[in-house]
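ARCHIVE RECORD
Type: protein–small molecule complex
Small molecule: adenine
Source of inputs: curated submission
Record status: active
Notes field left blank by submitter.
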Amino acid sequence: MNAARFGIVSAIAQEQQGLLECLQQPRCVRHGSRDYTLGTLWGSEVVLVLCGIGKVAAAATTTSLIVEFGCDALLFTGVAGGLGDGVAVGDLVIADTLLQHDLDARPLYPQYEVPDTGLTHFAANRALTDRLHAAAQRLLSPQAEPLIDAQTRQAFGLHAPCVHRGLIVSGDRFISTRADSDALRHALPDALVVEMEGAAVAQVCRDYDVPFALVRTISDRADDTAHIDFGRFIHAVASQYSRALLSELWHAGLINEKADPGGR
Ligand code: ADE
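STRUCTURE (tokenized, with ligand):
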């Protein structure tokens, strides 16, 4: 993917911190109540930003990255609650498609359909997603150096973290009861994870025909202990993951090769 300028959106400050530490010639621009940090990351021009929580915050930030800051590709890193069987805390999940689980304009439009698009599922860019997937697999391969120290791994039961790829669902709700996560699993059996921003980023990127990819680290299982697991995980783990993953993506040469821009 040989974009001229990548927007890198993080959901939480701890994730962005690791990337900020690697950024060269950083320059901060305040726009629309957010701080956008421009600079060079491993040889590529990037803009780093924290979008905040929820679909509106994510959509507004994505629009600014594209329209105001001229980003021509986007990467999103964040955490999510696991829904799918075998999607465990510490695993990485990469989006193939994204859907808004709380969008319901029935009877005017089918459930989950974004009015006037004819779409319920929004696709991530295939080429960029393939590269992110390859980087994630290398990072979590049994041969790779563990990202997290042994004590933290034990505390979270992170034995052999896996990489998954598939449907990610987004909505303006933190899912923190077993009843709510069961309801989501029942309504959307293919959903691997639930989070609060991704599908909004996907919709705006489609509007502007800008390629994007999204990766989530599982912080909780979207059940009754989700809020406790989420807080502990963010502190102990989140900052290591996104820096290591994006560094792998760039250093493996996966980002600068010419990519097939199909699948936007
Ligand atoms: N992000 C991380 N965990 C989540 C959850 N349980 N629900 C929604 N968004 C999340």
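CURATOR ANNOTATION: The chain is about 35% helix and 25% strand.
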